[in-house]
Amino acid sequence: MSLSEELRRRSLNVWSRLLEHPFVDELYRGVLPIEKFKFYAVQDYNYLMGLIRSLAIAASKGDHEAARTSLSHASFLATTEMENYRRLLVRLGIRIEDVIEAEPAPTNLAYVNFMIATCYTGSTLECLVSLLPCYWSYRDIALHNREKLEGNRNEIYREWASVYLSREYGEAVDEFRAEVDRLWRRYGGDLERLSQIFHTAARYEYLFWEMAYNMEEWIV
User: Fold this and answer.
1) Range of the structural domain that residue 65 is part of
2) What is the pLDDT along the chain (220 residues), one digit of tens a residue?
3) Total structural domains within the chain
4) Is 80 exposed, middle or buried (0-12, 13-18, 19+ CB in 10 A)?
5) 7, 133, 193, 216: which could form a disulfide with 201 (CB 3.0–4.6 Å)?
């Protein structure tokens, strides 16, 4: 069993709940209130920027292969993914200027800080492991819920979900997993520490959906 498979196996209790979170279920069925999706879209900007910064840190620490993979994914996020994101905002009637100025919700801020702190203080492998649940869970969520799209009449939701079912996205996930597994074979690491990092990131993924579903705000 590869490292990535072992990490997911150890977090199946969280992973299985990720696949059927109410936000995910309602989005794939096309019944999610649009205000909840708009909230998610606004908050996603802060997360995407945190992910790009985390990948840049990984590239600065890693060997040639790790740097290549990290910079490739960071470049894709900063160009293609960001352009797709801007188009989504237009369809939702949201200005990018308002998104940039929006305050991150508590869970969003905590998740991004966790990723960046892990990347700054940990090894390249630990950094990539902290980012893996995001990449991988979106793919697994899409595969798990794909049949629901057949009855989904919300075009925005269908198009958004279809991205994670695409061959290109699947290949990106496979590449990221392969790099995690390669670093483990090449350099090793503390399996318990890596499991803890993966598990924490998976829990944050669940909490991110929870945050969006409840439209989480600061209390004071």
Assistant:
1) 3-214
2) 899 999 999 999 999 999 999 999 999 999 999 999 999 999 999 999 999 999 999 999 999 999 999 999 999 999 999 999 999 999 999 999 999 999 999 999 999 999 999 999 999 999 999 999 999 999 999 999 999 999 999 999 999 999 999 999 999 999 999 999 999 999 999 999 999 999 999 999 999 999 999 999 999 9
3) 1
4) exposed
5) 133
